[in-house]
Amino acid sequence: MNVTPQQAKKLLTGNQNFSLLGFSMMITRLKTLYARDPSKLESFTDEINKFIAAFSSVMRDDYAIISKL
Question: How many structural domains are present in the chain?
Answer without folding.
Answer: 1
